[in-house]
Design brief:
Layout lengths: L7 H4 L11 H12 L16 H18 L5 E6 L2 H13 L7 E5 L2 H11 L4 E6 L23 E4 L1 E2 L4 E2 L11 E4 L16 E5 L10 E6 L16 H6 L9 H18 L2 H20 L6 E2 L10 E5 L3 H13 L14 E4 L6 H17 L4
Parallel strand pairs: 2-3, 2-4, 4-7, 7-8
Antiparallel strand pairs: 1-9, 5-6, 8-9, 10-11, 11-12
Helix pairs in contact: 2-7, 3-7, 4-5, 8-10
Length: about 375
C-alpha cells in the first residue's frame, strides 16, 4: 500500500508513543523497505556488519552531537531495551558498591519506575517526591537539597504521563547529572554539555520503537565495575560502536532520517522548539479559554510542550470525547491508564495544523456537550 503525503491517519496521531513521524521520513522509509538508495537491498535485509550500516551509525552519532552542540568526548550509543533497561544499566555502572546514595527525583510515573531498579543495586535517596500533590507540579529550587557526595543525580526532564516538564537544568555541576529525556529529546536546544549522561528511547520524537539513544561523557565511566556483562557495559558498547550484537538496523536508520530532517528541513533545534512552542501555546490556550470545561493536569509553570494532559467535567464526557474524536479521525488521545483523562502528545513530527484541527474539535464538543 502506498503511503500518501499528509496521510490523515498519521497527521492526526496524538499518541503518547509511538509518536507520529514526518511525512518526508515516512516516504523515505517506504522507499527503503523496497530498496535503500544506492544499496539496492531492502533496509530489512541489510547486514548490521556491512560497511553501509557502519556509515549509518557514524553519521547518526555526528548528527546527534551537532544537534545537541556536544564535543567529541561525548559518546553516542544506540541500544536496546528502552528507557527501562537504562533504569538498571545506569546504576550497575555508577552505583554498585557506593556507600553514598544516588539522588533521584520522583516527579511522575516514569521516574517512579526507575527507583526500584536502582535500589536493587545500591543506596538511593529520593530527593523530592510529587506523590503528595498527585504529580501535578515540579519542585522549586528551594525544595531541592542536592548531596555534593552523591555518585549521581537522576531525573526525568519530561513526565510523559502527567504532562510535566522541567524548563531548567537541575543539580550541581560537581555531581554527574543523568537525565531521562525520552519524551523531549531533540525537541529544543539546551545546555546539554552540563549533563554527564542523557538517554531517550526513540519512539516519541525521533523514530520507531526498538532503539534507545544514550549520550554520555567519557569520564563518567572511569570507575565502573569490571565484571559487568558485556551487553550491559557501556564501555563494551562504545568499543563496538553500538554493534556489539545484532542491533535494530531498521529503527536506527529511521532515527538517522529524522536527524537529517531536523538538520536539513527544519534547520536545527531552535526552529524545532519554535514550532513546538507554538503548538503547545495553541492547545493550552484552548484549555484556558474553556471556562473550566477542560482542566489541565499540570501546574501552569510546569506544563509540558510535549504532552498536554487534561480532564473533562465527568468520566462520561471523557468517554464521549474519546469516541467522537476517534470518529473524527483523531487517534491516541486516551490518557495513560494510571491517571485516565485525555492526553494529546504533540511531538516533533506533529504539525501545527493538526493541533488547530484538535482545538476546533474541542471547541465544538464543548459547545454541544450537555451541562454536567
Amino acid at each position: 500500500m502506498t503511503i500518501p503525503a499528509s496521510n490523515p491517519l498519521n497527521a492526526l496521531n496524538f499518541s503518547g508513543g509511538p509518536g507520529v513521524l514526518p511525512d518526508v521520513v515516512l516516504q523515505q522509509v517506504q522507499e527503503a523497505i523496497q530498496a535503500v538508495p544506492g544499496v539496492g537491498l531492502s533496509i530489512l535485509g541489510i547486514s548490521h556488519r556491512s560497511d553501509w550500516f557502519a556509515a549509518v551509525v557514524s553519521e547518526l552519532e555526528d548528527n546527534i552531537r551537532k544537534l545537541m552542540g556536544l564535543p567529541a568526548d561525548y559518546r553516542v550509543l544506540f541500544l536496546q531495551g528502552g528507557a527501562t533497561q537504562q533504569f538498571s544499566m545506569l546504576p550497575m555502572s555508577l552505583l554498585a558498591g557506593s556507600t553514598e546514595p544516588a539522588d533521584y527525583l520522583h516527579t511522575g510515573y516514569w521516574s517512579g519506575k526507575a527507583l526500584p531498579e536502582a535500589r536493587k543495586v545500591g543506596p538511593v535517596r529520593v530527593l523530592w517526591s510529587g506523590e503528595s500533590c498527585r504529580f501535578r507540579q515540579l519542585p522549586a529550587d528551594d525544595e531541592l537539597d542536592f548531596n555534593p557526595q552523591a555518585p549521581y543525580l537522576h531525573y526525568v526532564s519530561n513526565e510523559t504521563v502527567e504532562g510535566l516538564q522541567f524548563h531548567r537544568v537541575l543539580g550541581r555541576d560537581d555531581v554527574p547529572r543523568i537525565c531521562d529525556m525520552s519524551s523531549d529529546f531533540l525537541s529544543a536546544p539546551g545546555d546539554y554539555s552540563r549533563f554527564a549522561m542523557i538517554y531517550a528511547h526513540a519512539q516519541k520524537n525521533i523514530g520507531p520503537a526498538g532503539v534507545t539513544v544514550v549520550v554520555l561523557r567519557d569520564e563518567l565511566l572511569a570507575n565502573a565495575p569490571d565484571d559487568l556483562p558485556a551487553f550491559l557495559d557501556y564501555r563494551a558498547q562504545i568499543a563496538a560502536h553500538s554493534i556489539l550484537n545484532t542491533p535494530p538496523v531498521f529503527a536506527i536508520y529511521v532515527v538517522l532520517l529524522v536527524t537529517r530532517w531536523l538538520l536539513q528541513d527544519i534547520g536545527g533545534l531552535a526552529e524545532m522548539d519554535r514550532r513546538n512552542t507554538a503548538k503547545a501555546a495553541r492547545l493550552y490556550g484552548a484549555l484556558d479559554a474553556s471556562h473550566g470545561f477542560y482542566t489541565g493536569h499540570a501546574a501552569p509553570a510546569d506544563r509540558s510542550k510535549m504532552n498536554v494532559v487534561f480532564r473533562l467535567p465527568t468520566p462520561e464526557l471523557e468517554a464521549a470525547f474519546i469516541t467522537e474524536a476517534r470518529s473524527a479521525g483523531f487517534s491516541g488521545l486516551n490518557g495513560h491508564r494510571s491517571i485516565g483523562g485525555i492526553r494529546a502528545s504533540i511531538y516533533n513530527g506533529l504539525q501545527l495544523a493538526a493541533v488547530e484541527k484538535l482545538v476546533d474539535f474541542m471547541d465544538g464538543f464543548r459547545r454541544r456537550a450537555p451541562a454536567p
